[in-house]
Amino acid sequence: MEDNFQSAYQEEEDRLNSALTEIDTVLERLRGIPVYTGHDYTEQALEASREQRRKDLAKLRQEPYFGRLDFQGKDEEERKALYIGKIGVDREQVSDRPLVIDWRAPVASLFYSFTGGTEPASYEAPEGLIEGLVYLKRNVVIRKQILERVADTYNRDSDGPAVSDEFLVYRLGENKDNRLRDIVSTIQEEQDKIIRAAKNTALIIQGVAGSGKTTVALHRLAFLLYQYKEQVSAEKMIIFAPNRMFLDYISDVLPELGVGNIAQSTFPDWAADVLGVVLPEQNAAETMSHWFEREGGMPEITGETPGRFKGSTALMGIIDSAIGLLENGTVPEGDFSPWDGSVLRRSMILRWHNEEYAPYPPAKRKERVMARIHRWIEMELKKSPSAAALKDRKKKSAAREKAYSAKWPKYDPLTIYKQIFRAVKVPEDWPAEAPERIPQGVLVSTVKDLKKGILHEEDLPPLLYIHYLLNGSEGGSRFDHIVIDEAQDFSPFQIAVLDLYVKGHSFTILGDLSQGIHAYKGVHAWEEMQTLFAPEQTAYHALTRSYRSTMEIIEFANGILSAGVGSSLLAVPVFRSGNPVRLIAYGQPLPGPAAGGDSRLQAVRTALASLSGREYRTVAVLTRSLREAAELYTELAGQFEDIHLIDGSMTEYRGGLSVLPVYLSKGLEFDAVILADADSDHYGSAAWDAKLMYVGCTRALHELWMLHGEGLPPYLQNGEGTVQGWPE
């Protein structure tokens, strides 16, 4: 066995040295070609291709590939050793195989889908289904041109067992820094199916905590750009993430995969930019405070909860009715006369509006009709009998043209939105029953805010919808693909509006209902989104394997979901064992010099000192509220240097030691987590409280410590698989 390993290692080291020599030779030749700076289009294209190849090869030198697949097609005479990497590179000389195969290439799918066995394997290629035999599947780790690890996950010629999870567990055991990393070397079969799914599909992914759903979605973008390079572009893709700090956290993944220029935003930022409005930062903070900082837990969610009603498609129907009324009474009554003696009949204006410009949305139609009227005026002015008459007519026509334009409805989304809620005066022909279709509580609170000029996040989807109905997708600019992360916090209305801004219902919608702590605005079941699309336009995938945390942490978190939520969306852990979850009461004697103390602050200090003293790059203290996080941070900052308070206003995740409220931790992950105040004074018995605690527990990769006062919530009282007290 040892001899086989040494032989494999030597073989791969020789191959790596050979590949590096070839890469360096080609790179040196390309760098020796003078950069073309002229204006010839063909030469410019050739230079762009050379420059891209220079960049690819320079990047490839550090980590040329991560996997090897020996495959023999059924019509081929011999098996071929195929090396798979982040970037595909052809050899300089004509060969039957590239130097490195791009991980997105059809044959590379075998590296992810083949899990062993002696039966033939197959993959889909442009020319059809390709069948053959896999002889070897090997993972390699190369860092800075040094071969660090070789692991065979399948060998047809060996009597030894397959070790499909050994390499995965090795990579998962690595510590985290302040950025999410690509998983291209460890993509699993179920993840690969999602990554390679057809483009024009609203793909909904339910993924348990730690299932890699965010990373899978980012890899899917890279695959779509590779597979549909003639149909899509990075500039017409966008990622919607829950907050700006999370965008910073995921910012390195796409560049590592060789993909750039994909827009990344939060929905409120993007929507406010489209609408040209400003959404004050304090509004989001006030919303979070209302739902997460109140004593006694989360307020009750009902049909009169503004986020739920305004996020429903019921409001879309009300808006449709209002816009329809506007269109019916669009063209002002009477003929248009720019000056006495000259008349443009209303019948002609109606013909322009209702026939010639009928395909345009209302605001654009008005623009074109008014432009047509202006051209008609200019033609009439040319008939003026004298210079004096021309001057007089110009003056009168300008005033009357402006007055006539003012008679048209005001195609402003905010004005129409205010009219729907009766926050301003409405046109005489608007139906009186419209407000009755809006819950009274929503109507009263919205009118109050709109009269003060206050907009909330839940007002953006209806405003966007009005904007779209009035203007269409301006300039024909629609996205080729949209990724929505933490989609359980999106409303059906948001998805419906975004569908108007994307081609072919091309979505990757991912989230976890078990982490639905923003139930006051998000969906409670994926059916709320699936029903927005025709059955053939959507697909659903469930990712149940969790790769983030140890078995002990996942099983502990599953216990919270089962007992506190009654959920069946439980994670299946990868076999990676670690330390048990610790339950530590504040009254227990502290270890070391502080023994005998029982203070909450001293307990948090001791826990943080213990975990941060280990080989962990990221450690977090999670509190129930922002106020408690700020107070703890102030106390801890004097003892710990690399410590940061995350309060929702940050745009950058810095790693190191962090203190933050549990509700702001969603989407992040840390080597070790200290969940402070895991007691019944801070977490009630409601399902929402259990979900909140579940979110906090599943942020931990390697260690989870639960500090608590007297009394535990019911879903923690069992405590199976935990260790009580401080480590020895």
UniProtKB/TrEMBL annotation:
Source species, domain of life: Bacteria
GO biological process: recombinational repair
Gene Ontology CC terms, in alphabetical order: cytosol
Species of provenance: Paenibacillus graminis
Matches recorded under Gene3D superfamilies: P-loop containing nucleotide triphosphate hydrolases (3.40.50.300)
Keywords: ATP-binding, Coiled coil, Helicase, Hydrolase, Nucleotide-binding
Coiled-coil blocks: 9-63
SUPFAM superfamilies the UniProt entry points to: P-loop containing nucleoside triphosphate hydrolases
Name of the protein in question: Helicase UvrD
Binding residue positions for ATP: G207, V208, A209, G210, S211, G212, K213, T214
Pfam families from the UniProt entry: UvrD-helicase, UvrD_C_2
GO molecular function, one term: ATP binding
Residue span(s) of domain UvrD-like helicase ATP-binding: 186-550
